[in-house]
Structures are given as C-alpha cells and as structure tokens.
Amino acid sequence: MYDILKKELEGVHAGPTGEEIGKVMSIGDGVAQIEGLPNAVYSEMIEVQTQSGVSVPAMVLNLEEFLVGAVILGDATQMKEGDTVKRTGKVLSVPVGEQLLGRVVNPLGVPLDGKGTLGTTQTLPIERPAPAVMDRQPVNTPLATGIKAIDAAIPIGRGQRELIIGDRQIGKTALAQDTILNQLNEPEATRPICIYVAIGQKTSKVAQFVGELQERGAMAYTIVVTANASDPASLWYIAPYAGCSMGEYFRDKGKDVLIIYDDLSKHAWAWRQIALLLRRPPGREAYPGDVFYLHSRLLERASRLSKEKGGGSLTALPIIETQLGDVSAYIPTNVISITDGQIFLESDLFSKGQRPAVNIGISVSRVGSAAQTKATKKVAGQLKLDLAQFQELAAFAQFAQDLDPATRKRIDRGQRLMEILKQGQFEPMPMEEQVASLLAVNEGYVDDVPLEQVRDFEKRLLTYLKDQHESLLQKIRESKALEDDTKEELKKGIEEFKQTYTR
Amino acid sequence: MAKAKAKIYARVLVDSLKEAKQHKQTEIMRAFKTLLQKRGDVRQLSAILREAEKLWQDTEGKLAKLVSAEALTSGDKESIEKCLNKVGYRMEEEIDPKLIGGMALILENSFVIDNTVRGKLQRIAKLL
User: Fold this and answer.
1) Where does it reside (chain B) (predicted)?
2) Gap between the Cα atoms of A499 and B16, Å rounded
3) Three-state secondary-structure class, residue A422
4) Which end of chain B is more exposed for a tag (fewer CB within 10 A), N or C?
5) pLDDT in tens, A297-345
C-alpha cells in the first residue's frame, strides 16, 4: 500500500486525465436515466459519484439517442439528480480463480463471509459467448447425485442441463445440496467444483445452507454466489451470469464444474422488474419479450468441451418453482424446453412420505443415459420396467384381496421399490451401494420383507456388505461395472445377510 | 421518451430560426406553435424552450465549464479562455472549495479533464 501511495504521489498516474462523464437526470426504483456518456457501450460498468463521496456502481442496459438507462448495483438511496456519472471502460466483470473456493460472495464478487479480500488477479465478463459447436463433445461422464431415484432412473451427465422443478417447500434445494455433498464420495482428481447461486433467497436459508456444507467439509470445493432477498433486483439479475463466469474459469482449465441456479423463477421476476422500469414493452404475464433468451443464453453456456479445448465441463442444475404444480406457466415451459430434461418433484408424493418426492414417470433425462455407469445401467433397466408396471396397477392396490397372484406380486414389488427409493436428507449414497440395494429388490430378496421394514433392511444390508464384502463394493466402485461373476458374488452376499436378518 | 422528443423539437426550431431572416422568425415561431398543437405536444413547450435555449447558446460556442478550488488570476483565466475560444468553446467559471485544489474542465456535460486534488484522491482510493 505504501508503494501504491508513493507511486501515485510521485505522479505516475496523478496527471490530469480525460474522462467521459454524464449526469443523472432521473432516478427511481433502482433505475437511473443518465444524460451524457456519449460513447458508453451496452453492459458497461459505470460509476455514480454521489455528493457524499461514495461511488455507486451501475450497469448500462438502455442506449438511446440522448439518454442512457442503467440499473444500479448498489445502494441507490444516496444518489441524487445531477450526480456525476463516470465511465469505467469495462463491461461488467467478476473476479475469478481458485481463491474463490470456499467463499461466499455477492454477484459483483464482493466477499460476504468476513474472511477478508479474495486476492484474485483475474476477472471475466459476466456475459460470455457459449462454446461453439466444434468446441463441444457429447455428454459421456456421469455426474453422481447420490440419490438413488435420480442416478438410476434420470441420470445426469457432466455438461448436461437438468431442470429441477416443483412447488415450494418440496425439497428442490435439499436435492441440490445433497448433490453437492455427494461429491465428497468422488475421488479428488475428478471431483467437480460446485457453485451454488442463490437468487432472491432468504439470507437465513443461505446461511443455513453454507453452514451444512461447512460442517460436512463440502465448502472446500464450493463457491456460493448470493443475491439475497433484500438486495436490489439488478443483483438478482446478474447473479447467475456472474456464477457462470466463475465456473467457466475452471471449465476452461479442463475441470468439471457443477452449477446450481436457485432459482430461475425469481431471476425472471427480477428481469421483468428491470425491463418494466426501463419501459420495455411487456408481453405474456408482463415478462419482456426476451425472457426466453434471458435463460437460453445462460444455460447454453453449460457444456462439455472437446478434448482439444481441455475436456472440461459445466453442468447446470437450474431450479424452477411452480405454483400449485402448474408446469404449463410461461417460465416453467420456457426452461423445460431449454434444458436437457427435468426432475419433477410432486407435492402429492411428498405428503405421502416419498422423499425425495421425484415423480419418475414424468421426469426425463434426454442425454444422461449415455453417461450412466455400466453397473447402474444394469440394475436400472429392471427398476424402470418394474416401476412402470407398478404405476399402471397402483390404482388397484386398494383391492388387494381380489387380485390374482401375478398382479399382487407386481404391486408388492413396486411398493418395495418405492420404499427403497426413499432417502433421507444429507444421506447421499455412493454408486456401489446404490447398485447393491437396487439389486436386492430386483432379484426379489426384499419381496418377503414387510413394507415398513424395507428401509431398515436396506440399512443393515449395506452395513453388512461394508463389513463383510468391502472388496466386492470396491471392485464395483473402481470398475464402475457389474460383471456376471461380481453380480453372483453380490447376490451370495445378500443371501448370507438375509439368513442373519430373518433369523 | 418525452425528453428525447423535446430535444428533437428544440433542434428543429433552432435550426430553422438560424436559417431564417430576422423578419421571418416571428412567423416561424407562430408556425411552430400550430405544429405543437397539431401534434398534441403543447404540454412539452417549456421543456422544448429550455432545450432550445441551450442549443441557441451552443451556436455561439459550446459550453466549457472551468471548476476550480480557488479563483484564478486574471492572466490564467485569459489564457485558458483564449485556448478554448480557438477550438469553439465559450468558458464559464465556477468555484467549488470542495475540490481542495487544482481545477477540472468540463466540456458540454459529457467530457471532463480532471486535475483536482479530490479527483486524484478518488483515484487513489480506487487503487486501495
């Protein structure tokens, strides 16, 4: 600091400088109309010099003949009409780098966790072009979420965009959080870097979220970007783009990145507010005409890069909150059509105690199955078939005594499958354990276990396998495949356990 | 936007007044009034006149505002004014003790050459 001051006083930069300026003509609701700034460019960062001496950052969004419209990215209460505005000559950028890992920052890259400055040297603009066609390769590596229902039936690949959609208070964030926690099960070399972007969330919720990650040691590979409910809409608007640029830094270095946007409904609200205040014409549900492009340009940046480009990936898990399960509203249909599949969470299932409340019937993953591990694929085929048959017959389940034995058996199997797919929060399961417990159901070892004891059976089975057959689990974990001989050994292990269990 | 519209009206008015001869100017003003009535923009008249005044002043030279912390000596003032007149600006002076020291030249509300102590301190603050 001494050196900087000295250099400055020695006159290195202290000479008179020419700057372009403007004047605030009007200000209200976080949007300022500015006269002057003849050469300002779209998305440029500008600074408003308030009378109290504080400079407030803002971003140019409207360029008109005499006026420039800008959204204020800070405290607008200090600004007054007539304040001077200066150009910075930079488009809005955020700091990027390894130093961000484990930190909680706002969308401008200002740390919020009280751990001091970031110490980054590099910045990237928040709006960056998506990778070109030739720079990409198909999704081929799985991204394990640790949730049986998802990894088996709706697998997600690295570089995919999978939407998580459902009503409020149904476990959307919990699902995302479990996915971050499950990356602890990954070997460090291939562990994806996780970025959680909270848009308009309650500060207490974000604090709780960060606390849970910290407690379990998951913050070491995680960045949290948060625009809280009390922050201006302009910060909500730039939050996902800022988080994405932070992720792209790692992606371009050949690493895998997982980014969660929680949630894009609020992001669309923020953009609607800004667009209306900038007097852009409203369209359906009062959203501006470019609300589709708002999300498509963001999600298009998720990609798996080709080997020539380093082979990194950016997986996006956007979250959308629906009102009373209405997925045909404007924003949900937009984001459904942009993403490569969606995970539906249903309040009916949730209230029936099926948690995570994933509706496997209507959830899809359009590219993920190419990325599923061989072992999971082997058990998942049977699972999907059994579940489909069960859902067809589920309506008859209440007339149990009048059913023929074959139907009865299918219903029993289906109920046990549903039971096995239940999973508590903060209990992500490694792939080999998922394979073992799904195999146990598929092969009918659970058929004679009473329904209410299925979860207990699973828990004790996995403990038994971990104690007695660790090498077997390790073999599945390392080869990621379930060869016939391994399968036989595993079945034998389950049989051994079952004798002790029934006894 | 209303502001942009007023500016365009003002520019048209000033340009046609400039081109016209002295005795025709009253006629132009009358025609301008009917034009506003016809287009339903009479309400913007005061804004238009304000803009027109600014533009009219610009025909005598664009505005250059010299802000300094202390009053300049007449010699300094004259030499600066001469330089500005040469490039088509007319000078206006302002004294603002908040600048601490030095001076800044503001050209037409859109460009500033800042050599004040306050400006320098702000630049230092940004570096820290």
Assistant:
1) Membrane
2) 103
3) coil
4) C
5) 999 999 999 999 999 999 999 999 999 999 999 999 999 999 999 999 9
Q: For residue B71, which phi and psi values (nearest 5 degrees)?
A: -65, 140
A461 phi, psi to nearest 5 deg = -60, -45
The string of pLDDT tens digits covering residues A79-137 is: 999 899 999 889 999 999 999 999 999 999 999 999 999 999 999 999 999 999 999 99
CB contact under 8 A, B123 and A16: no
For A275, the token pair is 């667009």
Put simply, the answer to whether B114 touches A55 (Cβ < 8 Å) is no
Residues of chain A with pLDDT under 70: 1, 3-5, 7-15, 400, 503
DSSP class per residue in A289-348: TTHHHHHHHHHTT--BB-GGGT--EEEEEEEEEPSTT-TTSHHHHHHHHHSSEEEEE-HH
Measured between CA atoms, how close is A25 to chain B, in angstroms?
10
- Residues of A carrying an active site annotation: 366
Whole-prediction pTM value? Answer: 0.89
Residues 6 or more apart in contact with residue A438 via CB below 8 angstroms: A148, A152, A379, A380, A383, A420
Using alpha carbons, select from A126, A359, A338 the residue that is nearest to residue A227.
Answer: A126
Cα A303 to Cα A9, A161, A255, A299, B24: the distances in Å are 48, 8, 12, 9, 69
Residue in B109, B120, B123 nearest the CB of A35: B109
Q: Which helix (H) or strand (E) holds A461?
A: helix A454-468
Smallest CA–CA distance, residue A370 to chain B, in Å, is 50
| Token pair of A494 as six digits | 């389950």
Residue that has been written with the tokens 């300049």 in this structure: B72
User: Model ipTM?
Assistant: 0.73
Which amino acid is present at B34?
A: T
Give the CA distances from residue A269 to residues A32, A94, A409, B103, in Å, rounded to whole numbers and listed in that order: 19, 23, 49, 46
By CB atoms closer than 10 A (0-12, 13-18, 19+), residue A117 is exposed
B62 vs A: CB within 8 A:
no
Query: What is the reported pLDDT for B56?
Result: 82
Q: How far is A77 from chain B (nearest CA, A)?
A: 21
What pLDDT shows up at residue A312? Answer: 96
A386, burial (CB in 10 Å: exposed 0-12, middle 13-18, buried 19+): middle
Residue A87 DSSP SS3: strand
pLDDT, position B1: 58
Q: Which residues of A touch B111 (CB under 8 A)?
A: 18-21
The answer to whether B19 faces chain A, any CB pair under 8 Å, is: no
β-pair type (A256-262, A313-321): parallel
Question: Residue A454 and residue A353: Cα distance in Å, rounded?
Answer: 14
